[in-house]
Amino acid sequence: MTDTNHSLFARGQRVIPGGVNSPVRAFRSVGGTPYFVARGEGARVTDVEGRTFIDLVQSYGAVIAGHAHPRLVEAIRAAAADGTSFGAPTPREVLLAEAIAERVPSCEKVRMVNSGTEATMSVIRVARGATGRSRILKFAGNYHGHSDGLLVAGGTAMASLGIPASAGVTPSAVADTVVAPYNVVPRLTESFAAVIVEPIAANMGLVAPQPGFLEGLRAECDRVGALLIFDEVITGFRVARGGAQELFGVRPDLTAFGKIIGGGLPVGAFGGRAELMDELAPLGPVYQAGTLSGNPLATAAGLAVLDLLDDDAYALLSSRAARLAASFESAFSSAGLTALVPRVATLTGLFFGDPAPVDYESACATDEATYAAFFHALLDEGVAIAPGAYEVMFCGLAHDDDVILAIDAAAHSAAAVVANSSGA
Ligand SMILES: *Cc1c(COP(=O)(O)O)cnc(C)c1O
Description:
Order of helices and strands: HEEEHHEHEHHEEHEHEEHHHEEHHEEH
Strand content: 5-15%
CATH topology of the domain at 70-308: Aspartate Aminotransferase, domain 2
Largest sheet: 7 strands, mixed
Helix content: 25-40%
CATH class of the domain at 70-308: Alpha Beta
Mean pLDDT: 96
CATH superfamily of the domain at 70-308: Type I PLP-dependent aspartate aminotransferase-like (Major domain)
Bound molecules: pyridoxal-5'-phosphate
Protein backbone atom coordinates (compact mmCIF):
# COMPACT_ATOMS: atom_id res chain seq x y z
CA MET A 1 0.00 0.00 0.00
CA THR A 2 1.33 3.40 -0.87
CA ASP A 3 1.52 6.15 1.72
CA THR A 4 -1.13 8.83 1.89
CA ASN A 5 -0.99 12.06 3.86
CA HIS A 6 -3.50 10.49 6.21
CA SER A 7 -1.61 7.25 6.79
CA LEU A 8 1.69 9.04 7.32
CA PHE A 9 0.13 11.54 9.71
CA ALA A 10 -1.49 8.72 11.68
CA ARG A 11 1.83 6.86 11.91
CA GLY A 12 3.66 10.07 12.70
CA GLN A 13 1.32 10.92 15.54
CA ARG A 14 2.17 7.62 17.21
CA VAL A 15 5.90 8.33 17.37
CA ILE A 16 6.25 12.11 17.03
CA PRO A 17 4.35 14.53 19.33
CA GLY A 18 1.52 15.89 17.21
CA GLY A 19 3.05 14.11 14.23
CA VAL A 20 5.37 17.06 13.52
CA ASN A 21 8.79 18.36 14.42
CA SER A 22 7.68 22.01 14.58
CA PRO A 23 4.19 22.97 15.80
CA VAL A 24 2.84 25.14 12.96
CA ARG A 25 3.20 22.25 10.49
CA ALA A 26 0.44 20.27 12.22
CA PHE A 27 -2.46 22.28 10.69
CA ARG A 28 -3.97 22.66 14.18
CA SER A 29 -5.07 26.24 13.60
CA VAL A 30 -6.49 25.67 10.09
CA GLY A 31 -7.79 22.12 10.59
CA GLY A 32 -7.30 19.09 8.39
CA THR A 33 -4.35 16.84 7.61
CA PRO A 34 -0.98 18.25 6.63
CA TYR A 35 0.36 17.38 3.20
CA PHE A 36 3.60 15.40 3.39
CA VAL A 37 6.06 16.73 0.86
CA ALA A 38 7.72 14.13 -1.32
CA ARG A 39 9.79 16.59 -3.34
CA GLY A 40 10.09 20.19 -4.38
CA GLU A 41 11.30 21.89 -7.51
CA GLY A 42 11.53 25.64 -7.95
CA ALA A 43 8.32 27.32 -6.79
CA ARG A 44 6.45 24.03 -6.43
CA VAL A 45 6.16 21.14 -4.00
CA THR A 46 4.61 17.73 -4.66
CA ASP A 47 3.04 15.73 -1.86
CA VAL A 48 3.13 11.97 -1.34
CA GLU A 49 -0.24 11.66 -3.12
CA GLY A 50 1.13 13.30 -6.25
CA ARG A 51 -0.63 16.66 -5.81
CA THR A 52 1.49 19.66 -6.74
CA PHE A 53 1.20 23.07 -5.09
CA ILE A 54 2.77 26.43 -5.79
CA ASP A 55 4.62 26.97 -2.56
CA LEU A 56 4.59 30.32 -0.73
CA VAL A 57 5.88 28.71 2.49
CA GLN A 58 9.42 28.15 1.16
CA SER A 59 10.49 26.62 4.48
CA TYR A 60 9.32 29.75 6.31
CA GLY A 61 11.92 31.77 4.51
CA ALA A 62 14.86 29.39 4.61
CA VAL A 63 14.53 28.85 0.87
CA ILE A 64 14.87 31.81 -1.53
CA ALA A 65 16.39 30.28 -4.67
CA GLY A 66 13.50 27.82 -5.07
CA HIS A 67 13.47 24.15 -4.11
CA ALA A 68 16.31 21.95 -5.35
CA HIS A 69 18.02 24.79 -7.23
CA PRO A 70 20.61 23.04 -9.46
CA ARG A 71 23.49 25.21 -8.23
CA LEU A 72 22.67 24.42 -4.58
CA VAL A 73 22.15 20.72 -5.25
CA GLU A 74 25.54 20.54 -6.97
CA ALA A 75 27.27 22.50 -4.18
CA ILE A 76 25.82 20.21 -1.51
CA ARG A 77 26.57 17.06 -3.51
CA ALA A 78 30.18 18.11 -4.05
CA ALA A 79 30.60 19.05 -0.37
CA ALA A 80 29.11 15.75 0.82
CA ALA A 81 31.55 13.80 -1.32
CA ASP A 82 34.39 15.47 0.58
CA GLY A 83 33.07 14.51 4.02
CA THR A 84 30.23 15.87 6.13
CA SER A 85 31.86 17.08 9.36
CA PHE A 86 35.36 17.11 10.82
CA GLY A 87 35.66 18.99 14.10
CA ALA A 88 38.38 21.08 12.50
CA PRO A 89 38.04 24.39 10.67
CA THR A 90 37.19 24.16 6.95
CA PRO A 91 37.83 26.72 4.19
CA ARG A 92 34.18 27.55 3.43
CA GLU A 93 33.60 28.77 7.01
CA VAL A 94 36.02 31.60 6.28
CA LEU A 95 34.43 32.29 2.90
CA LEU A 96 30.91 32.44 4.34
CA ALA A 97 31.95 34.71 7.23
CA GLU A 98 33.66 36.99 4.68
CA ALA A 99 30.57 36.95 2.46
CA ILE A 100 28.32 37.94 5.39
CA ALA A 101 30.68 40.64 6.65
CA GLU A 102 31.01 42.11 3.17
CA ARG A 103 27.22 42.37 2.77
CA VAL A 104 26.45 43.50 6.32
CA PRO A 105 29.11 46.01 7.43
CA SER A 106 27.93 46.06 11.08
CA CYS A 107 29.12 42.44 11.27
CA GLU A 108 32.88 42.79 11.43
CA LYS A 109 33.10 39.28 12.83
CA VAL A 110 30.70 36.38 12.46
CA ARG A 111 30.20 33.04 14.15
CA MET A 112 28.23 30.18 12.62
CA VAL A 113 25.71 28.11 14.58
CA ASN A 114 23.02 25.59 13.59
CA SER A 115 19.72 27.46 13.85
CA GLY A 116 18.18 30.88 14.33
CA THR A 117 17.36 29.88 17.91
CA GLU A 118 21.03 29.29 18.64
CA ALA A 119 21.95 32.58 16.99
CA THR A 120 19.62 34.71 19.13
CA MET A 121 20.43 32.76 22.29
CA SER A 122 24.17 33.22 21.75
CA VAL A 123 23.95 36.85 20.73
CA ILE A 124 22.11 37.66 23.97
CA ARG A 125 24.85 35.92 25.91
CA VAL A 126 27.47 38.05 24.14
CA ALA A 127 25.48 41.21 24.95
CA ARG A 128 25.23 40.27 28.62
CA GLY A 129 28.88 39.27 28.79
CA ALA A 130 30.05 42.46 27.12
CA THR A 131 27.91 44.84 29.19
CA GLY A 132 27.95 42.97 32.48
CA ARG A 133 24.19 43.64 32.66
CA SER A 134 21.33 41.15 32.90
CA ARG A 135 18.09 42.57 31.55
CA ILE A 136 16.98 42.39 27.95
CA LEU A 137 14.00 43.93 26.25
CA LYS A 138 12.02 42.20 23.53
CA PHE A 139 8.85 43.22 21.72
CA ALA A 140 5.53 41.43 21.95
CA GLY A 141 4.83 39.41 18.82
CA ASN A 142 8.48 39.25 17.82
CA TYR A 143 9.79 35.68 17.63
CA HIS A 144 13.40 34.96 18.43
CA GLY A 145 13.41 31.17 18.47
CA HIS A 146 12.58 28.88 21.35
CA SER A 147 15.32 29.42 23.94
CA ASP A 148 13.90 29.88 27.45
CA GLY A 149 14.70 33.53 28.03
CA LEU A 150 13.17 34.69 24.75
CA LEU A 151 10.05 32.53 24.72
CA VAL A 152 7.48 35.11 25.81
CA ALA A 153 4.80 36.73 23.62
CA GLY A 154 6.51 35.02 20.68
CA GLY A 155 3.90 35.30 17.92
CA THR A 156 3.95 32.61 15.17
CA ALA A 157 2.52 29.23 16.33
CA MET A 158 2.40 30.45 19.94
CA ALA A 159 -0.20 32.95 18.74
CA SER A 160 -2.20 30.52 16.59
CA LEU A 161 -2.15 27.84 19.32
CA GLY A 162 -3.03 30.39 22.02
CA ILE A 163 0.10 29.78 24.13
CA PRO A 164 1.06 33.10 25.78
CA ALA A 165 4.13 31.64 27.49
CA SER A 166 5.57 28.15 27.34
CA ALA A 167 5.19 25.63 30.13
CA GLY A 168 8.59 24.39 31.20
CA VAL A 169 10.12 27.88 31.17
CA THR A 170 10.80 28.82 34.78
CA PRO A 171 9.89 32.29 36.07
CA SER A 172 13.57 32.87 36.78
CA ALA A 173 14.47 32.15 33.14
CA VAL A 174 12.34 35.07 31.97
CA ALA A 175 12.80 37.30 35.03
CA ASP A 176 15.32 39.41 33.12
CA THR A 177 13.20 39.61 29.96
CA VAL A 178 11.05 42.71 29.66
CA VAL A 179 8.32 42.68 26.98
CA ALA A 180 7.25 45.95 25.36
CA PRO A 181 4.79 46.84 22.57
CA TYR A 182 6.25 46.90 19.03
CA ASN A 183 6.60 50.23 17.28
CA VAL A 184 6.87 52.24 20.52
CA VAL A 185 10.37 53.27 21.59
CA PRO A 186 10.65 52.09 25.20
CA ARG A 187 12.31 54.11 27.95
CA LEU A 188 15.35 52.10 29.11
CA THR A 189 17.51 52.25 32.22
CA GLU A 190 21.14 51.34 32.69
CA SER A 191 20.14 47.87 33.87
CA PHE A 192 19.53 46.76 30.26
CA ALA A 193 22.17 44.75 28.41
CA ALA A 194 20.30 44.81 25.11
CA VAL A 195 17.18 45.38 23.10
CA ILE A 196 16.40 42.64 20.58
CA VAL A 197 14.03 43.40 17.72
CA GLU A 198 12.78 42.01 14.45
CA PRO A 199 13.50 45.10 12.33
CA ILE A 200 10.52 44.08 10.20
CA ALA A 201 8.16 41.98 12.28
CA ALA A 202 7.34 38.82 10.33
CA ASN A 203 6.04 36.42 12.98
CA MET A 204 2.78 38.24 13.78
CA GLY A 205 1.82 38.48 10.15
CA LEU A 206 3.84 41.27 8.57
CA VAL A 207 4.19 44.50 10.55
CA ALA A 208 6.51 47.22 9.27
CA PRO A 209 8.54 49.35 11.65
CA GLN A 210 6.94 52.79 11.79
CA PRO A 211 9.13 55.67 10.66
CA GLY A 212 11.53 56.59 13.46
CA PHE A 213 11.04 53.37 15.48
CA LEU A 214 14.36 51.71 14.63
CA GLU A 215 16.21 55.04 14.77
CA GLY A 216 14.59 55.68 18.14
CA LEU A 217 15.75 52.30 19.44
CA ARG A 218 19.29 53.08 18.31
CA ALA A 219 19.25 56.42 20.15
CA GLU A 220 17.66 55.03 23.32
CA CYS A 221 20.17 52.14 23.48
CA ASP A 222 23.02 54.61 23.04
CA ARG A 223 21.62 56.85 25.79
CA VAL A 224 21.87 54.08 28.42
CA GLY A 225 24.76 52.06 26.98
CA ALA A 226 22.61 49.07 26.00
CA LEU A 227 23.33 47.10 22.84
CA LEU A 228 20.91 47.02 19.92
CA ILE A 229 20.39 43.54 18.44
CA PHE A 230 18.61 43.05 15.12
CA ASP A 231 17.10 39.60 14.68
CA GLU A 232 17.48 39.30 10.92
CA VAL A 233 16.80 35.57 10.81
CA ILE A 234 14.01 36.27 8.29
CA THR A 235 14.99 39.68 6.90
CA GLY A 236 18.72 39.00 6.47
CA PHE A 237 19.65 38.58 2.79
CA ARG A 238 15.92 38.61 1.99
CA VAL A 239 14.74 42.22 2.03
CA ALA A 240 17.99 43.64 0.64
CA ARG A 241 21.55 42.46 0.05
CA GLY A 242 22.52 43.90 3.44
CA GLY A 243 19.21 43.02 5.13
CA ALA A 244 16.82 45.32 6.99
CA GLN A 245 19.70 47.31 8.45
CA GLU A 246 20.67 48.36 4.93
CA LEU A 247 17.04 49.01 3.95
CA PHE A 248 16.40 51.33 6.90
CA GLY A 249 19.92 52.67 7.39
CA VAL A 250 20.10 51.78 11.09
CA ARG A 251 23.23 50.03 12.34
CA PRO A 252 22.77 47.53 15.18
CA ASP A 253 25.61 46.41 17.47
CA LEU A 254 24.86 42.73 16.97
CA THR A 255 22.81 40.76 14.44
CA ALA A 256 21.34 37.25 14.37
CA PHE A 257 20.91 35.38 11.08
CA GLY A 258 19.49 32.02 10.02
CA LYS A 259 17.16 30.62 7.38
CA ILE A 260 18.52 31.91 4.02
CA ILE A 261 22.23 31.56 4.81
CA GLY A 262 21.90 27.78 5.06
CA GLY A 263 20.19 27.41 1.69
CA GLY A 264 17.65 25.12 3.40
CA LEU A 265 20.18 23.30 5.59
CA PRO A 266 20.23 23.80 9.39
CA VAL A 267 22.18 27.01 9.94
CA GLY A 268 22.32 30.19 11.96
CA ALA A 269 24.96 32.84 12.47
CA PHE A 270 25.52 35.94 14.52
CA GLY A 271 27.84 38.84 14.11
CA GLY A 272 28.68 42.33 15.22
CA ARG A 273 31.40 44.75 16.13
CA ALA A 274 34.76 43.02 16.48
CA GLU A 275 35.32 44.03 20.09
CA LEU A 276 31.93 42.57 21.07
CA MET A 277 32.44 39.35 19.14
CA ASP A 278 35.91 39.00 20.67
CA GLU A 279 34.18 38.45 24.01
CA LEU A 280 33.57 34.91 22.73
CA ALA A 281 35.75 31.97 23.70
CA PRO A 282 38.55 31.24 22.88
CA LEU A 283 39.39 34.99 22.93
CA GLY A 284 37.08 36.03 25.73
CA PRO A 285 35.04 34.73 28.65
CA VAL A 286 31.67 34.18 26.88
CA TYR A 287 31.37 30.46 26.15
CA GLN A 288 29.64 29.27 22.99
CA ALA A 289 30.37 26.17 20.91
CA GLY A 290 28.96 23.63 18.46
CA THR A 291 30.02 20.20 17.20
CA LEU A 292 28.38 20.78 13.81
CA SER A 293 28.78 24.57 13.61
CA GLY A 294 30.17 25.81 10.30
CA ASN A 295 29.16 22.50 8.78
CA PRO A 296 30.70 21.80 5.34
CA LEU A 297 27.36 21.07 3.63
CA ALA A 298 25.58 24.03 5.15
CA THR A 299 28.35 26.48 4.34
CA ALA A 300 28.47 25.16 0.76
CA ALA A 301 24.72 25.73 0.40
CA GLY A 302 24.93 29.15 2.06
CA LEU A 303 27.71 30.34 -0.24
CA ALA A 304 25.86 29.08 -3.31
CA VAL A 305 22.68 30.91 -2.39
CA LEU A 306 24.41 34.20 -1.50
CA ASP A 307 26.12 33.99 -4.87
CA LEU A 308 22.72 34.07 -6.61
CA LEU A 309 21.54 37.12 -4.65
CA ASP A 310 22.88 40.24 -6.33
CA ASP A 311 21.18 43.66 -6.43
CA ASP A 312 19.23 42.66 -9.54
CA ALA A 313 17.82 39.66 -7.67
CA TYR A 314 16.47 41.91 -4.91
CA ALA A 315 14.89 44.32 -7.43
CA LEU A 316 13.24 41.34 -9.09
CA LEU A 317 12.04 39.87 -5.78
CA SER A 318 10.58 43.24 -4.72
CA SER A 319 8.66 43.65 -7.95
CA ARG A 320 7.30 40.11 -7.64
CA ALA A 321 6.23 40.67 -4.05
CA ALA A 322 4.46 43.84 -5.19
CA ARG A 323 2.62 41.92 -7.91
CA LEU A 324 1.75 39.18 -5.46
CA ALA A 325 0.34 41.74 -3.02
CA ALA A 326 -1.65 43.43 -5.80
CA SER A 327 -3.09 40.05 -6.85
CA PHE A 328 -4.29 39.19 -3.36
CA GLU A 329 -5.63 42.72 -2.82
CA SER A 330 -7.61 42.57 -6.03
CA ALA A 331 -8.90 39.09 -5.16
CA PHE A 332 -10.13 40.26 -1.75
CA SER A 333 -11.71 43.44 -3.01
CA SER A 334 -13.54 41.74 -5.91
CA ALA A 335 -14.86 39.12 -3.48
CA GLY A 336 -15.82 41.78 -0.94
CA LEU A 337 -13.63 40.27 1.81
CA THR A 338 -12.15 42.51 4.50
CA ALA A 339 -8.44 41.81 4.24
CA LEU A 340 -5.19 43.69 3.90
CA VAL A 341 -1.98 42.63 2.20
CA PRO A 342 0.91 44.43 3.89
CA ARG A 343 4.22 44.44 2.04
CA VAL A 344 7.73 45.52 2.96
CA ALA A 345 10.34 45.15 0.21
CA THR A 346 10.30 41.44 -0.71
CA LEU A 347 7.99 40.32 2.13
CA THR A 348 4.20 40.04 1.91
CA GLY A 349 1.68 39.34 4.65
CA LEU A 350 -2.04 38.60 4.94
CA PHE A 351 -4.26 40.27 7.52
CA PHE A 352 -7.97 39.51 7.70
CA GLY A 353 -9.17 42.73 9.27
CA ASP A 354 -8.91 46.48 9.12
CA PRO A 355 -7.07 48.74 10.04
CA ALA A 356 -3.53 47.51 9.41
CA PRO A 357 -1.81 46.16 12.53
CA VAL A 358 1.08 48.09 14.10
CA ASP A 359 1.79 45.82 17.08
CA TYR A 360 0.96 42.41 18.54
CA GLU A 361 -2.38 43.44 19.99
CA SER A 362 -3.65 44.79 16.67
CA ALA A 363 -2.06 41.86 14.76
CA CYS A 364 -4.02 39.40 16.92
CA ALA A 365 -7.23 40.97 15.64
CA THR A 366 -6.80 39.03 12.38
CA ASP A 367 -9.83 36.81 11.69
CA GLU A 368 -8.30 33.37 12.08
CA ALA A 369 -11.44 31.56 10.93
CA THR A 370 -11.39 33.44 7.63
CA TYR A 371 -7.66 32.78 7.32
CA ALA A 372 -8.32 29.05 7.79
CA ALA A 373 -11.10 29.08 5.19
CA PHE A 374 -8.93 31.00 2.74
CA PHE A 375 -5.97 28.69 3.41
CA HIS A 376 -8.01 25.62 2.44
CA ALA A 377 -9.71 27.27 -0.52
CA LEU A 378 -6.32 28.37 -1.83
CA LEU A 379 -4.81 24.91 -1.26
CA ASP A 380 -7.71 23.44 -3.27
CA GLU A 381 -6.71 25.84 -6.06
CA GLY A 382 -3.12 24.53 -5.89
CA VAL A 383 -1.39 27.27 -3.88
CA ALA A 384 0.10 26.62 -0.44
CA ILE A 385 0.46 29.38 2.14
CA ALA A 386 1.47 28.75 5.76
CA PRO A 387 -1.06 26.84 7.90
CA GLY A 388 -1.06 29.63 10.49
CA ALA A 389 -2.45 33.17 10.41
CA TYR A 390 0.68 34.78 11.87
CA GLU A 391 3.16 33.76 9.18
CA VAL A 392 4.12 35.67 6.03
CA MET A 393 4.26 34.68 2.36
CA PHE A 394 7.68 33.99 0.87
CA CYS A 395 8.26 34.71 -2.78
CA GLY A 396 11.60 33.60 -4.22
CA LEU A 397 13.71 33.55 -7.35
CA ALA A 398 11.62 30.69 -8.73
CA HIS A 399 8.31 32.61 -8.53
CA ASP A 400 8.43 33.85 -12.10
CA ASP A 401 5.72 35.62 -14.12
CA ASP A 402 3.85 32.41 -14.93
CA VAL A 403 3.82 31.37 -11.29
CA ILE A 404 2.54 34.78 -10.19
CA LEU A 405 -0.21 34.63 -12.83
CA ALA A 406 -1.25 31.20 -11.56
CA ILE A 407 -1.31 32.52 -7.98
CA ASP A 408 -3.40 35.48 -9.13
CA ALA A 409 -6.04 33.19 -10.63
CA ALA A 410 -6.03 30.89 -7.59
CA ALA A 411 -6.36 33.80 -5.16
CA HIS A 412 -9.35 35.19 -7.06
CA SER A 413 -11.13 31.82 -7.06
CA ALA A 414 -10.31 31.11 -3.42
CA ALA A 415 -11.46 34.55 -2.23
CA ALA A 416 -14.74 34.07 -4.11
CA VAL A 417 -15.26 30.64 -2.50
CA VAL A 418 -14.66 32.08 0.98
CA ALA A 419 -16.95 35.07 0.34
CA ASN A 420 -19.77 32.82 -0.93
CA SER A 421 -19.55 30.33 1.93
CA SER A 422 -19.53 33.08 4.56
CA GLY A 423 -22.39 34.89 2.85
CA ALA A 424 -20.31 38.07 2.56
C1 LIG B 1 12.64 31.46 12.44
C2 LIG B 1 13.08 32.55 13.34
C3 LIG B 1 13.95 32.32 14.42
C4 LIG B 1 14.35 30.93 14.84
O1 LIG B 1 15.09 30.26 13.89
P1 LIG B 1 15.12 28.63 13.94
O2 LIG B 1 16.11 28.28 12.87
O3 LIG B 1 13.73 28.19 13.66
O4 LIG B 1 15.59 28.25 15.29
C5 LIG B 1 14.44 33.41 15.11
N1 LIG B 1 14.08 34.66 14.79
C6 LIG B 1 13.23 34.92 13.78
C7 LIG B 1 12.90 36.33 13.43
C8 LIG B 1 12.69 33.87 13.03
O5 LIG B 1 11.80 34.13 12.06
